[in-house]
Design a protein that fits this description.
Layout: H1 2-18, H2 25-30, H3 36-45, E1 49-53, E2 59-64, E3 69-77, E4 80-89, H4 90-101, E5 107-108, E6 119-124, E7 129-134, H5 137-141, E8 144-151, H6 182-185, E9 208-218, E10 221-231, H7 233-238, E11 249-253, H8 278-287, E12 293-300, E13 314-321
Length: about 325
């Protein structure tokens, strides 16, 4: 009897050691069926403390131990959860990855998946959910894997077999394009007055050269898949522990993608946050078309930079048209 008790205790300890945050992936899926109050209770009951809420509606919670900082970000629409991101240790995070991989409801979205960079996206049309897994180099160096789960609103999934044109850009009416620098592409709240722990990173450029391979419109936003043709020495030196990025694809986002509406009106609460006029905004949209050759630089989102809701995502901080 004593042996059985010891074995039971050992099993419980091992289970606790390797268990995921919030129990398992299905528990997190169930958050989308709960009220805002119930979700917030679950988060705090798991040891997280509320940290902040930004102007975009991102609620951030933090839990720390001697080795790791665990971060949760939520976005609600009314009383319903629309977005939930979290991170976990690599060891425990692999259980989440397995949960998703063995779930027949989720199908991988190749248009948003980049195995080389370490970004993976799967969609469940049945559950109306999209899961993103960020096993990027910065996350792995911290011993972490990041995840985000969001409602997709029954939007049609992009056809991943659709051919894209990387030979020549689509026709447009603009011939003189501006150079888009960090002040036009990044929210001032992140780099002015020490608005971020890493304010200087937004002003630093590590150039790459490539072709806009695909414009991906989904969930009300736009992502850009760039085929990298050349990298600068500065970029290579920064990533000297990784293989060459040349002839690989990377998905990069434009932070002010929906800054203006079709009438040229800036959205409420976003005035003066970007040095981007409506005229330049239109030029930016015309610049980023399939087949366009560009010189660009990017920064990675995540805690302390573009906010925890953007963990593992990449954002342009420089774009220039090249011939």
């Amino acid at each position: 009897m004593r042996v059985k008790i010891l074995i039971t205790i050992l099993i419980l300890k091992v289970g606790f050691l390797f268990s995921q945050e919030f129990g398992n992936f299905s528990n997190i899926e169930n958050f989308f069926n709960l009220t805002k109050q119930e979700v917030e209770f679950k988060i705090k009951d798991s040891g997280y403390q509320f940290k902040s809420k930004d102007k975009s509606g991102n609620n951030t919670y933090v839990k720390k131990n001697s080795t790791y900082t665990f971060v949760v970000t939520t976005i609600f629409k009314g009383n319903q959860l629309k977005y939930f991101s979290w991170n976990d240790t690599v060891m425990r995070g692999q259980f989440i990855v397995s949960d998703i991989g063995y779930n027949p409801s989720y199908k991988i979205d190749e248009s948003k998946t980049n195995d080389y960079i370490g970004v993976y996206t799967s969609v469940s049309a049945e559950k109306d959910l999209q899961i993103n897994i960020f096993k990027t180099q910065p996350n792995l160096q911290k011993g972490m894997i990041a995840f985000s789960l969001m409602k997709i609103g029954n939007k049609k999934i992009t056809n991943t077999n659709e051919k894209t044109n990387i030979e020549s850009p689509k026709e447009n009416t603009i011939s003189d394009f501006s150079i888009f620098t960090y002040n036009k592409l990044i929210d001032k709240n992140y780099y002015e007055d020490n608005g971020s722990m890493f304010s200087d990173q937004f002003k630093e450029y590590y150039f790459l050269y490539g072709v806009v391979k695909k414009v991906i419109k989904d969930n009300g936003g736009t992502d850009y898949k760039i085929h990298i043709t050349k990298t600068s020495k500065e970029f290579d030196d920064l990533h000297n522990d990784m293989k060459s990025f040349v002839n690989t694809d990377i998905v990069v986002n434009v932070d002010p993608d929906d800054l203006y509406d079709y009438r040229g009106r800036i959205k409420d609460g976003w005035e003066s946050r970007y040095d981007l006029s409506y005229n330049d905004f239109k030029k930016l949209k015309e610049l980023l078309v399939e087949g366009r050759k560009i010189k660009f630089s990017y920064v990675e989102g995540g805690g302390g930079s573009l906010g925890t809701a953007t963990e593992g995502m990449f954002f342009f901080n420089y774009i220039e048209k090249i011939d």
